[in-house]
Amino acid sequence: MDKLPKIGIPVIIGIVLIIIVLAKSAVTIGSGEAGVLYKTFDGGVVTDGPPLSEGFHLVAPWNDVIVYEVRQQELFEKMQVLSSNGLEIKLDASAWYQPVYSDLGNLHQTLGESYLQRVIQPAIRSAARSVVGRYTPEQLYSSKRDAIQDEIYAETKKILDKQYVQLNEVLVRDVTLPPTIKEAIERKLKQEQQSLEYEFRLVTAEKEAEKVRIEAQGKADANKILSASLTDKILQDKGIDATLRLAESPNAKVVVVGSGESGLPLILGNN
Asked: Which residues touch 31 (CB under 8 Å, ≥6 apart)?
């Protein structure tokens, strides 16, 4: 140090101070992130402008930048809620959410970095308790799972829209009932299925019986019409025609031994 010119020491000190200031002032915002600027001597959190976007930024060394993830994130929740008749239901759900980019400054000022624990988790838990409490365990087990998913989303979104948070989706992954209730519901559903099958067989048998009755009635009506149309003269003519055809057959030896009914000849053959 003694060999350095006297002017060199202040220069070195100045360079070091510049490096420290630049290091303190340089802020890099990563991919999928945004920064909220806090001005120490000029009003605190900046809320009237867009947040700092991705990339490199220089800020005054006495100011601060709070970095938030602004891409979509997922929250997993395991909840215990009550059905309409007071039975305990276990509900597994997840929520897709992200901060509202343009309101990031307001989010930081009102809720801070722990906004997930402060508003999102309480909102989805409150909505789940409210929605599930409208349904019976049987409805939750069978037909209403999609309905409760949509209703939980709607109620949670209504809360979060006022908190600078964007809710993209709520997914109900599993609904777990008490074992005894689940077994009772499954037995009931099985009995209902068996009853439906029995009713189907009865309807099928009744339709088949109706079909047979219709066919029998049709045959009876046809025979009735035929009987009414067959006079003695028509029967005699048909008998004569049949006799002639038998007599002309090359395979039969015809012998007349007398006469049959209605004056028709009686024909006997070797076959």
From this structure: 54
In 3D, which of 223, 243, 224 has the Cα closest to residue 235?
243
- Residues 98, 32: contact at Cβ < 8 Å? no
Residues 33-55 have pLDDT tens digits of 999 999 888 888 998 888 999 99
| Reduced 3-state DSSP string for the chain | CCCCCCCHHHHHHHHHHHHHHHHHHEEEECCCEEEEEEECCCCEECCCCCCECCEEEECCCCCEEEEEECCCEEEEEEEEEECCCCCEEEEEEEEEEEECHHHHHHHHHHCCCCHHHHHHHHHHHHHHHHHHCCCCHHHHHCCCHHHHHHHHHHHHHHHHCCCCEEEEEEEEEEEECCHHHHHHHHHHHHHHHHHHHHHHHHHHHHHHHHHHHHHHHHHHHHHHHHHHHCCHHHHHHHHHHHHHHHHCCCCCCCEEEEECHHHCEEEECCC
Phi, psi of 36 (to 5 degrees): -100, 125
Residues 6+ apart with CB under 8 A from 32: 54, 69, 70, 71
- In Å, what is the CA distance from 3 to each residue of 6, 8, 13, 14? 9, 10, 16, 19
**Cα–Cα distance, 181 to 227 (Å, whole number):** 69
Share of the chain above pLDDT 70, in %: 65
pLDDT digits (tens, 9 = 90+) for 167-184: 999 999 888 887 766 566
Token output for 97: 């959410």
Query: Does the predicted TM-score (pTM) go above 0.85?
Result: no
Report the distance separating Cα 174 and Cα 43, nearest Å. 47
